[in-house]
Amino acid sequence: MYKPLILVVEDDKPIRKLITTTLETQGYKYHTAETGEAAILEAVSHQPDMMILDLGLPDMDGVDIIKKVRSWSNLPIIVVSARSEDRDKIDALDAGADDYLTKPFSVEELLARLRVSLRRIRYDSDKLQKDASVFKSGNLRIDYAAGCVWMEQEEIHLTPIEYKLLCLLAKNAGKVLTHNYILKEIWGSHTYDIPALRVFMATLRKKIEKSPSQSKIIQTHIGVGYRMLQAGEDSKVI
Ligand code: CA
Q: In this structure, what DSSP letter does residue 61 have?
């Protein structure tokens, strides 16, 4: 059976040990790095399936590592940091991190986030093989080629902005997209502000999340942004 290789970048020895022991018990392979320089070297030479990254490293800021890695790789990056401010999360996510965990964290939560990111890798490669023009999550189906959206058998009518928003979230399913990222992608600038984005999101959600008992398709990360669940992802994971 294929075992994913995970690169653990952490200069704090007890935390590094906690993470690697956890990975070992779950059957993951891992490499470790204690500095930013070593992390980049490892990422280039061993092509890991995922990176778990501490932001406070002795030689480099973790956000700069994310930017460097993103210049040549889509490797999923989960940040594990003591920095808990929204600004820090937003900087890391804007730089290209896939997820963000604040220390102290529970081992179960780290494993859940890992599973989500690994599913995204599988989903991305499946998607390349299958018909890439259709997105499915729960009862939601987007046909990109036809520009149509369905909930079960019912076609949903969206405004152009709502449709662009939905496609942006769907194409990045499993990832947290920051408000700034969404504003830039949809409007090409910051002409619209975050309150306006909230209004568009609210009307979009009303159309695709009709039943209150239904699990949410789009999650709100307060003060940070939004994230769409992937096909088959359990909303309880987060
Ligand atoms: Ca550190």
A: B
Alpha-helical (H) ranges within the chain are: 13-25, 36-46, 62-70, 86-95, 107-129, 160-171, 179-187, 194-208
Please give the Cα distance from 205 to 227 (Å, whole number): 12
Q: What percent of the chain has pLDDT over 90?
A: 49
The pTM for the full model equals 0.64
Ligand 1 centroid–CA 11 distance in Å is: 5
Report yes or no: 50 and 117 within 8 Å, Cβ to Cβ: yes
* Torsion from C-alpha of 171, 174, 180, 184, nearest 10 degrees: -10
Q: What is the DSSP string of 97-109?
A: -SEEEESS--HHH
Type of residue numbered 71: S
Going by the DSSP 8-state scheme, the letter that residue 234 receives in this structure is: -
Distance 55 CA to ligand 1 centre (A): 6
Instruction: Give the Cα-Cα-Cα angle 126, 131, 135 (nearest 5 degrees).
Output: 80
Instruction: For tokens 């989960």, name the residue.
Output: 78
Rounded distance from Cα 33 to ligand 1 centre (Å): 11
The answer, yes or no, to whether residue 131 has pLDDT greater than 80, is: no
All domains of the chain in start order, with CATH = 5-123 (3.40.50.2300), 132-228 (1.10.10.10)
127 has pLDDT over 80:
no
Average pLDDT over residues 52-63: 96
